[in-house]
Description:
Two copies of one chain form a homodimer. Helices cover 33% and strands 24% of the residues of chain A. Chain A is an alpha+beta fold. Chain A has two domains: 35-145, CATH 3.30.1330.10; 161-301, Phosphoribosyl-aminoimidazole Synthetase, Chain A, domain 2 (Alpha-Beta Complex), CATH 3.90.650. In chain A, the strands form two sheets. In chain A, strands 1-2-3-6-4-5 form a six-stranded mixed beta sheet, covered by helices on one side. A six-stranded mixed beta sheet of chain A has the order 8-10-7-11-9-12. In chain A, strand 2 and strand 3 (47-55) form a beta hairpin. In chain A, helix 3 (67-83) runs parallel beside helix 4, helix 3 (67-83) runs parallel beside helix 6 (193-199) and helix 8 packs across helix 9 (249-256). The longest helix of chain A has 17 residues, at 67-83. At the A-B interface, helix 1, helix 2, strand 3, strand 4 and helix 4 of A face helix 1, helix 2, strand 3, strand 4 and helix 4 of B.
Amino acid sequence: MRRLRDVGEYAWIARFVRDLSSQRRGARIVVGPGDDAAVVRPGRRALLLTTDTLIENVHFRAGWVSPAALGRRAFRVSVSDLAAMGGGPTFALLAIEAPPRLAVGHLDALVRGFRAAAGASGAALVGGNLTAGSHLAITVALLGEAPGRIVTRAGGRAGDALYVTGTIGGAGLAVRRLRAGRRGRLPDPPLRLRAGRELAPFAHAMIDVSDGLVQDVGHLCRASGVAAELEAASLPLALGCRRALGEAAPTFAATAGEDYELVVAMPPRREHLAARLSPRLGCRLSRVGRLVAGPPGVRLRDAAGRVLALPRDGFDHFA
Amino acid sequence: MRRLRDVGEYAWIARFVRDLSSQRRGARIVVGPGDDAAVVRPGRRALLLTTDTLIENVHFRAGWVSPAALGRRAFRVSVSDLAAMGGGPTFALLAIEAPPRLAVGHLDALVRGFRAAAGASGAALVGGNLTAGSHLAITVALLGEAPGRIVTRAGGRAGDALYVTGTIGGAGLAVRRLRAGRRGRLPDPPLRLRAGRELAPFAHAMIDVSDGLVQDVGHLCRASGVAAELEAASLPLALGCRRALGEAAPTFAATAGEDYELVVAMPPRREHLAARLSPRLGCRLSRVGRLVAGPPGVRLRDAAGRVLALPRDGFDHFA
């Protein structure tokens, strides 16, 4: 009998998405399963739908993050999928599994943190569910809209330049330190709604970096039918990550995950816009490589052009 | 420090919903948190949003239900909240927490069961999430619409007759037997989309019976600012429940939960329609009592008019 740990999260999802894609889609489903968010059209207006879960002892441990920051984190991790399509959130549902021993004040602070984060992004918490369980688990469903073009993972073409917002490696380093028992807090995921919205009109494809740059660029490559070349020297490393890891920082940052930055594939003719757009994004925008023709896959090269060996592509729940 | 088990699920939710209601609602939120589903209006069209979670060893145990039936159950339990407003589902998101040891075939069958149930109700599974965890947990988010009037819990008035669809007590008895170690299966929750849609134009208020008739009628009473009188002799008891429990069947069925039938408050002037509507509902429709003026609360009376003592109102995750 094959078990989930033998197959892995992404292989299972990929197979299931193929299975679903073979179904008749219908005019009301613009983007089905397999992208950052689904795009549906129940009426005239296109709506974005996405769901994500944070689980205690999987995505965080007690003490890594305050209750309010955990609520904020749950919102931002989910909203990142909408940002990666050029959209933003309008309504949120919050389903919580909580152990009966959980302090009421903890739960209150968590939900208030979620609400405040949602409100700050123009979304309202309109419903939810609370159920007993053995650990804390937070599942968010977001309904969203895109003011303009909706960008999927699938539009990347050979020749496109790859850009990354903000910096990477900082959250991954924090997780590594916390796992090793050092004191500290998980940093807040960045909010890239504005960046996603500003970049969408010019992007061929976008994805958010949740499970590691190499892994998520790999998803974009598979959806777009191209390969990617990333330059280690160009990665926008978080300062703390560069300082702590030195030469090992690029490969660590490229595979650590938890960044929630956006990766954008921009056609060459739009590249001159990147510099002009930059001040409007609210964050850095760094050119980190390009898409090339070839079977889907991601290579990370050093300054001499050598392909760097990676410890892993990124995070897989079951691998 | 107060813990969740000291406060209880419903008290926590009630307090939180009050807290949220004090916020400015805005034109885009028609029904906010606290009802069966939220009703939002991102464009011209009103949309329903709801979320629900099934957790292993809380809502079911391995062996109580086949993987496909569990997927179907997850869909039906969620869709029941839309039926209780007179709506139906259009799009579904499925977030699964699964232990790495889970058989892939089990997960496949679960998701196929969900998809088949969604498809049979006119809804498409458009996205989801899969994450590792210590147990199986299934969180569903549904987007829905109502073809006509949307009915909340809040419109009940003194004098309204209370009706219940289908039968109650059957699923609760199955749970009791399974918990006691007897062999068997959890019955499929009924699908009351058609009943909800047909009853909505004539109902003052509706709610689905998930945690026990008395408890859910109590929610309707609190939302409507009325009390309820239920007649034990009028309850539509599942045949197996009546046979197995005899005289104890009404109080058991009124508090057992897992029925997923609808409770409908109908104004007296509409009562003559109940008989006429019945053939179109796809299930029985039984008059079980009425709403009366008074502080919110539910009394179950025997044929002699005596108030029956209840072991509990229904299911509370933390009580």
